[in-house]
Design brief:
By secondary structure, the protein is an alpha/beta fold. Helix content is 46%, strand content 14%. It is built from nine helices and seven strands; from the N terminus they run E-H-E-H-E-H-E-H-E-H-H-E-H-H-H-E. The chain has a seven-stranded parallel sheet with strand order 3-2-1-4-5-6-7, with helices on both faces. Helix 7 packs across helix 8. The longest helix has 29 residues. This is Oxidoreductase. Pfam families: adh_short_C2. InterPro entries: NAD(P)-bd_dom_sf, SDR, SDR_fam. Belongs to the short-chain dehydrogenases/reductases (SDR) family.
Length: 262
């Protein structure tokens, strides 16, 4: 299927590895030009070289730095001739017990996983509407639908973003101008983030990480962890011309792990 987005420009945050890299890779293969961001310069440059190898016809620009900082956000947007596609993504806050978290821990989580995506949306969405095309995908978490006890910081901050998007995505001045905003909710994907969560759970339970991993797999009907490549493919579809009638949705990608009907 031709997704109809070749030649578009996309900003992909936290793109040097994991799910962000998976999304950038899928867009690159569809002919989308990219501005990629991550904090580590070396890893980001390596990813950019990989993306160019996937499709030598596209342009890939790198802006390294913490996307939660205003000057980095400005640099990222300025590096993009026009933002047609925005993939909001950031590493989640650390797991733990809420009794141990300070006010600063909460503010940091909200800044990174709620306010930063909102600021990027604010900066780009009106330009998308003016041009008659825009796709925004926020990578959040399956914990928005089924909270995970040790991920309280993530549960709270990402749920705040979800509530905000639910209202904004349905504004007629955006929907009538072919601008969609959706959230993509990953379940258990084989990333560094998952490994850290498994390690924390194993520490709390006093058992081996491999045992915790097997326990987690038994809760997933697919009996495996997801891959960044398949996550990126779904993201690319949400960014396509074929998804223009889909907005304000929370798309759960978890191998069937969530047990609810709605």
């Amino acid at each position: 299927m031709d997704l109809g987005i070749s030649g578009r420009w996309a900003v992909v945050c936290a793109a040097s590895k994991g799910l962000g890299k998976g999304c950038a890779s899928a867009l690159a293969q569809e002919g989308v030009n990219l501005v990629v961001n991550a904090r580590g310069v070396e890893a980001l440059e390596e990813t950019a070289a990989y993306l160019r190898s996937l499709n030598p016809m596209i342009e890939v620009r790198c802006v390294a730095g913490d996307i939660s900082h205003e000057n980095i956000r400005q640099a990222v947007v300025s590096a993009c001739p026009h933002v047609d596609i925005l993939i909001n993504n950031a590493g989640g806050p650390p797991p733990g017990d809420f009794r141990d978290w300070t006010r600063d821990d909460w503010l940091s989580a909200v800044e990174t996983n709620m306010l930063t995506p909102i600021e990027l949306i604010k900066t780009t969405v009106d330009g998308m509407a003016a041009r008659g095309f825009g796709r925004i995908v926020n990578i959040t978490s399956s914990a928005v639908k089924a909270p995970i006890d040790i991920l309280g910081l993530s549960n709270g901050a990402r749920s705040g973003l979800t509530g905000f998007v639910a209202g904004l995505a349905r504004q007629a001045r955006l929907t009538e101008r072919n601008v969609t905003i959706n959230n993509l909710l990953p379940g258990s994907f084989d990333t560094d983030r998952l490994q850290k969560t498994l390690q924390r759970s194993a520490q709390v339970a006093g058992i081996e990480v491999s045992d915790i991993a097997q326990q987690r797999l038994q809760t997933i009907p697919a009996r495996r962890f997801g891959t960044a490549e398949e996550f990126g493919a779904v993201c690319a579809f949400l960014c396509s011309q074929h998804a223009s009638y889909m907005t304000g949705q929370n798309v759960l990608l978890d191998g069937g792990q969530y047990q609810g009907t709605f």
